[in-house]
Input
Amino acid sequence: MEERRHTSLHYEMELQEIKNGLIYIGALTEKAIRMAMQSLIERNSDIAHKVIKDDDEIDKMDTDLEERCIRILALRQPTAIDLRFITTAIKITGHLERIGDMAVNIAEKAIQLNEETKLKPYIDLPRMAGIVIEMIKNSLDSFIRNDLNMAEEVRRMEDVTDDLNEQIFRELLTFMMEDSKTIHRSLMIMQVSKNLERIADHAKGIADMVTYMVTGECVRHQTCVVDEKEPA
Amino acid sequence: MDFNIIIKLNKVNFYYGQSRALTDITMNFRKNKVSALIGPSGCGKSTLLRLLNRMNDLIDGTRVEGEILFEDKNIYAKDVDPVEIRRKVGMVFQKPNPFPKTIYNNIAYGPKLTSMKTDDLDALVEQSLKQAVLWDEVKDILNKSAMNLSGGQQQRLCIARALAMKPDILLMDEPTSALDPISTAKIEELIEELKKNYTIIIVTHNMQQAARISDETAFFYLGNLVEYNKTEKIFTNPDVKHTEDYITGRFG
Output
């Protein structure tokens, strides 16, 4: 059903600005992950330094969006879909800010790895990065379009990243067992993989919040209970 | 029979002359709960409230169809005395309307008509004012005119006056719309307290007030009951789109 507009156009605009802000911060985080991985693959630490520097912008946007949401809570006292939208937006901006921090972690590892001899060609890591970027994009698209199917797809993709992380871990374990000189580099690559896997968790967190926003049902934990007792 | 239900409406239609103000309303009000009736002006919520103590009888040309059962007895049955219903179902209005009498006599007026003894009256006045959380403010000026009280105090006096008749149900028609935020907060606090002993049905245009104080909320539109649900459900995730459009300000 087509969403009606608020009687107050200012309120409508304030909500739209929050949507726009989330799209923007989402784009910044996608870019940060892409650049952090590029820095690792192309062994170019300048790019990694730029990721670290640009994280300030993500943090600033996060604070700004959170303040806007709190302002709406205080001044507009939203209810129903608007209340769920605002609480979802607050959670999403938190997830995106953490994703930005993880891109910084990857960039820091890239700088360290770039100073050492390359351990092996990176195959699964770029694949995993591609998947998590897609997950972030899809989770935000599902938020903008209220698309439950897309949110569900993001949840499914998270399993793939878990498997890839496991696979990378096992492979690096063999490197370390064969040659102890590879331990330091292997551990750093493992941390890159772990950070990508955590980013996927955050994208799933966004998708879970979208499901809550659209249906009012909590799907974040198996223990989520919905009390639907009707009045007499 | 469900002992938690105090009022039962069964296919209630209400007409002002030829014009139908309420259509096929079927709903139950639960004992010791606060139920809020919300909806845009003219949706029938105040009409419904006034049906519950037969206040609409006082308007010429009105007609009720269907049943309104109060403790399983139809209050519109021929053998029912509307005055007795109004004693059991008290009402507080939008604007405080104390009698131009002393504070004491405002409370004692109704019970006096029921020939209550003077000693009992003193105790009743004190008890009613205490229940309405007004006693401490007025105990030393009981013989002063009620008209000198502030708006918020006058409204609590009206609540005390209604309580003095020992009703089972208290109907409130926008009881805080003429009050400042502090007086409003006091009345809301009072409602929370009163629901331990009374069933409260309140009409309000203030969404946040309905959300804050009621257990159940009914949304009316054009004389129809659109949705009746737990308040938390109505204000976080209503079942009906129309309810959502109204409470989020996407109306019209």
Notes: DSSP finds six helices and no strands in chain A. Residues 80-114 of chain A form the longest helix (35 residues).
